[in-house]
Design goal:
Pfam families: E_motif (PF20431). With 147 residues, this protein is of the alpha+beta class. It has a single domain (2-129), classed as Serine Threonine Protein Phosphatase 5, Tetratricopeptide repeat. It has 6 helices and 4 strands. The strands form 2 sheets. Strands 1-2 form a two-stranded antiparallel sheet. Strands 3-4 form a two-stranded antiparallel sheet. α1 packs across α3.
Length: 147
């Protein structure tokens, strides 16, 4: 974007976090940008929905992808405080998604915070959230198999 003279806003940066982080070119934590990204997430617009009886509900819409991108960036740069906030937000949005819990456990373990990691594991067990084993597909001579 810079070569063509476009300066990205923080929302654009949030959208690019997962792909840039994957490519290893992100330097989001320089100059406190992770905290700025968190501030942007906090100011996302209010979502208005109706419940089953037609009453209006006002709730903040903070998409799981946005929180997930922040969680991944926090893991990359070792920002545990924001990782905890993002992880807890993801637990509320997607309570059955074991991947979010495992990501937070891995962050804690990577920072030698083993008691905190064990606490998240216990919470997973109490809520009966289980990590599903990985699977792969293989196609060989027009037949496929799952293993």
């Amino acid at each position: 974007m810079r070569p063509i003279g476009v300066r990205p806003c923080l929302i654009t940066l949030l959208a690019l976090v997962p792909s840039c982080n994957f490519l290893g070119v992100m330097r989001l934590n320089q100059g406190g940008r992770l905290h700025k990204a968190y501030d942007v997430i906090q100011t996302l617009p209010v979502k208005v929905t109706k419940n089953a009886w037609g009453a209006l509900l006002f709730e903040k819409e903070k998409p799981a992808r946005t929180w997930g991108a922040l969680l991944v960036a926090c893991r990359t740069y070792g920002v545990v405080g924001l990782a905890e906030i993002a992880g807890r937000a993801l637990f509320e949005i997607q309570p059955d998604n074991a991947g979010n819990c495992v990501s937070l456990v891995n962050i804690y373990s990577g920072m030698s915070m083993h008691e905190e990691a064990e606490q998240v594991r216990r919470e997973m067990e109490q809520r009966d959230v289980r990590r599903l084993p990985g699977r792969s597909w293989m196609i060989h001579r027009k037949s496929s198999g799952l293993f």
